[in-house]
Design brief:
377 residues, alpha+beta, Tumour Suppressor Smad4, 16 strands
């Protein structure tokens, strides 16, 4: 913070963050609290984590390459500062719990085989006891709850216990798959349970809990990339490089800011064959269509539109999104409330933790930070 105070007042000061999504999210949250909206030195990324989702979106590549370090440093000076939404997450005890009806005849028939998923049954596991508080209450990438977060939490616990085994992104992903193997029963009996029995989700005041009745993971997306480069909302997104009138002084401080209003961008990581991914349009279920019909504001993603995308995934879609399919679009909204009636794992910008009791999670917009987009990849 002392160095930041010294150099932030200098003209054209820029920050290069070296790390994964957890490190990047942590530093961005500090900048969001330290500076007023869009007043921070803009931030570029040298990806050194496993997923590196924000780095992918901003064009800084998906993994670290020491041969490109000098090139990355040169690109920092030419990169365009753009706005990135920040989201505040507040937790409160849920004292009044309304019963949520269990859905589906199949679930009731199989309830004796799998009464609850492992992350609900085994609340005394050390990995759950040691991580019951988030590192911060801001996120810029995404927050997920359910089966995916449970696997990430197990992975994180193993890494904290023996970091010497986690030496490369490829090895990390193999260990992640091994952690997922321990949830085979939850994946195999995917019709026997769903998140709709354990939580209620309210988007902009509208109860969307029915959209969860076939979902095992729910994700609140601020950026289009999730889980090491998948696109559960869409392969394309909309990005604004305009800066509002209340921060006109930033255009003088950073003359690289582009003042065009809205541009559709597809960074190199997002180029794709239209025919290959046409199957995205038929991968949505009836539930996603109903959810879209109830919210006429659903559209393309943007990282600076003060909107967050809510996506549901069943255990099959958790695999299919890695080959181009998308999840169930639930809502595109400006605030979300999630009422958890049973214990639940949560994953927020590389920081997994466990909520052992009934909790309400309130997600609201919390300003913006400046980040750097690399157009010279």
């Amino acid at each position: 913070m002392q160095a930041l105070d010294i150099y932030s007042s200098l003209r054209n000061t820029r920050i290069l963050l070296c790390g994964g999504d957890g490190t990047v999210g942590w530093i961005l949250s500090i900048l969001a609290k330290r500076f007023s909206s869009l007043d921070n030195p803009p931030v570029g990324i040298c990806p050194m984590g496993t997923g590196n989702d924000l780095s992918r979106v901003l064009g800084w590549d998906w993994s670290y390459n020491k041969k490109r370090l000098l090139t990355t440093l040169l690109h920092i000076s030419n990169a365009k500062p753009i706005a990135l939404d920040c989201w505040q997450v507040d937790f409160e005890p849920l004292t009044r719990i309304d019963p949520i009806e269990e859905s589906g005849i199949i679930r009731r028939c199989l309830s004796r085989i799998l009464e609850h998923p492992k992350f609900v049954r085994e609340i005394d596991r050390p990995s759950y006891q040691n991580y019951q508080k988030p590192l911060n209450n801001l996120f810029t990438n995404y927050i997920s709850l359910g089966l995916d977060a449970a696997v990430v939490l197990d992975f994180h616990d193993k890494r904290m216990r023996d970091s010497s085994k986690f030496t490369s992104p490829m090895k990390n992903k193999l260990i992640y798959l091994n952690c997922a193997r321990h949830y085979f029963r939850e994946f195999a009996l995917w019709r026997a349970w769903n998140l709709g029995s354990y939580m209620r989700i309210i988007c902009d005041g509208q109860d969307m809990t029915n959209s969860l009745r076939h979902c095992h993971t729910v994700v609140l997306l601020n950026i289009p990339s999730y889980g090491s480069g998948t696109h559960p909302w869409s392969r394309t997104y909309q990005h604004s490089t305009s800066i509002s009138n209340n921060i006109q002084h930033q255009t003088e401080k950073f003359n690289q800011i582009n003042v065009n209003t809205f541009q559709n961008i597809d960074p190199p990581d997002y180029s794709y064959n239209q025919c290959k991914f046409a199957r995205e349009d038929i991968s949505n279920t009836v539930e996603s269509s109903r959810a879209s019909a109830t919210n006429n504001q659903i559209g393309r993603q943007s990282i600076d539109d003060h909107k967050i995308e809510v996506v549901g995934l069943d255990s099959i879609q958790m695999a299919l999104i890695h080959i181009g399919f998308r999840g169930r679009r639930i809502a595109q909204c400006s605030q979300v409330r999630i009422e958890i009636i049973r214990s639940m794992p949560v994953h927020m910008d590389g920081d997994p933790f466990y909520l052992p009791q009934s909790t309400a999670i309130n997600v609201t917009h919390a300003g913006q930070v400046l980040v750097l987009r690399n157009d010279h990849k």
